[in-house]
Amino acid sequence: MSVNGSPAGRVAVVTGGGSGIGAAVAEHLGAAGHRVAVLDVNGDAAESVAERLRGDGVEALAATVDVADRTSVDKAAGVVREKFGPIEILVTSAGIEAQTPFTEIPAHEWDRLIAVNLTGTFNTTQSMIPDMLAGGWGRIVTISSSSAQSGAPERAHYVASKGGVIALTKALAFEYSPQGITANTIPPSIIATPMAEAGVAAGHIPKLEDLAMMTPVRRSGLPEDIAAAATFLCSDHAGFITGQVIGVNGGWYI
Ligand SMILES: NC(=O)c1ccc[n+]([C@@H]2O[C@H](COP(=O)([O-])OP(=O)(O)OC[C@H]3O[C@@H](n4cnc5c(N)ncnc54)[C@H](O)[C@@H]3O)[C@@H](O)[C@H]2O)c1
C-alpha cells in the first residue's frame, strides 16, 4: 500500500506541534497516513491537537517537552519509540521570538532564543536521528525563518538563531543523505499563527491584511501552506531533495 508516496505510514514527530505551523504539520502528516507524535512545551495544547487527530482516525500521541532541555527531549523520544516504534520523520517547529533593539538584548534573552530555536533543533535531531540511521531512511524538515534570509530589525537573536537552523540543516543533509536521510528547511515569511498575531498586537509587525496586500500572491500565508510543503518533503517522492532552503512565502523572497 502506498500512502502519499510512502510504502506505509511512518512514525513522525512534530515539535511545537501544539500550535500554529506545527499543529498544521501534525494534521497534514496524519492525513498522509503517518503516526504522529505531537511534542510541545505546552502539554495541554499538544494533547488537544493529538486528540483532534485521533478523532480523524489518525494514530497520534502527545508529549510535553522543552526542546532546550536534552533530558526532556530524550524522554519524549523514548515515549514515541515505546508507543509507535523508531522515529522516521522529524519536523522541528518549536520556536520562540522576541523583539528588542540590538544594544538592549539582555544576555538571558539571547541565550533563551538560541537555546530553544537552535539548540532545540540540535537536541531533537541528535536524539532522534539514530532511529533513522538504523532504518536507513529518514526525513528531517526544520522550520527556520525568512528573516534569516533577509535580516530583520531588532531581532538579531531570533535572526541569528534561525540562520543557525538553516546552516545546521545543510550540514545534516551533507552528513546523512548518503544514508537515506534527507534534511531540508522551510523559512516561512509571516504566517497567520498565534506567534504572528502576538507580533501584530505588540506593534512589531504590520497587520496581516496589510502584509497580504504587499505579498505577490496577495494573501496571508497560512499554517497549511507550510504544512503541505513539509509533508511533501517528508514523503518518498522528495528523496532527491536535500540540503535545500524551500521558500514558502507567497513570492516575497524569490
Ligand atoms: N508565524 C510566523 O510568521 C513564522 C515566520 C517564520 C518562522 N516561524 C517559525 O515557525 C515555527 C512555528 O511558529 P508558529 O508561528 O507556529 O508559532 P506558535 O507560537 O503558534 O507555535 C510555536 C509552538 O512552539 C512551542 N514551543 C515554544 N517553546 C518551546 C520549547 N522550548 N519546547 C517545545 N515547544 C516549544 C509553543 O508552545 C507553541 O506551541 C517557529 O519556529 C517560528 O519561529 C514562524
Give a structural overview.
With 254 residues, this protein is an alpha/beta fold. The chain has a single domain, classed as NAD(P)-binding Rossmann-like Domain (Rossmann fold), CATH 3.40.50.720. It is 47% helix and 13% strand. The chain contains 9 helices and 6 strands; from the N terminus they run E-H-E-H-E-H-E-H-E-H-H-E-H-H-H. The chain has helices spanning 20-31, 43-55, 70-84, 107-135, 147-150, 156-176, 194-201, 208-214, 223-233; strands at residues 11-15, 35-40, 60-64, 89-92, 138-143, 181-186. Strands 3-2-1-4-5-6 form a 6-stranded parallel sheet, sandwiched between helices. Helix 1 (20-31) crosses helix 9 (223-233) and helix 4 packs parallel to helix 6. The model is unreliable at 1-7 (pLDDT under 50). Bound molecules: nicotinamide-adenine-dinucleotide. Nicotinamide-adenine-dinucleotide binds next to helix 1, helix 4 and helix 7.
| Attached small molecules | nicotinamide-adenine-dinucleotide
CATH homologous superfamily annotation: NAD(P)-binding Rossmann-like Domain
What kind of sheet is the major sheet? 6 strands, parallel
- CATH architectural group: 3-Layer(aba) Sandwich
Secondary-structure-based class equals alpha/beta
Number of domains: 1
Fraction of residues in β-strands: 5-15%
Relative helix content:
40-55%
Span of the ends, CA to CA: 37 Å
CATH topology: Rossmann fold
Unreliable runs: 1-7
